[in-house]
Design brief:
78 residues; 0% strand
């Protein structure tokens, strides 16, 4: 809870000179307790997903199953 007249921090934007600095900052933010963080880079950065605490979800599997079911359904309708 913030003091009267002060706003809570909603977001923060930062730029890093190297990929290593980005990974270190992501790990530090995760260790500080921040759970909802995103990071973007124009190339693959090894260790960034782990530094952010990314875990695999089932969206890719559900999309694949939906695509196969839609393709099969369209084929069978013909």
């Amino acid at each position: 809870m913030s003091a009267p007249g002060r706003k809570n921090l909603y977001g923060l934007l930062a730029e890093f000179a190297t990929a290593d600095a980005l990974v270190i900052a992501a790990q530090a933010a995760r260790q500080a307790g921040y759970q909802r963080a995103e990071a973007y880079a124009p190339f693959h950065v090894e260790g960034l997903a782990e530094g952010l605490g990314f875990h695999h979800d089932r969206v890719a599997l559900a999309t694949f199953i939906g695509g196969v079911a839609g393709g099969l359904g369209g084929y069978l309708l013909q």
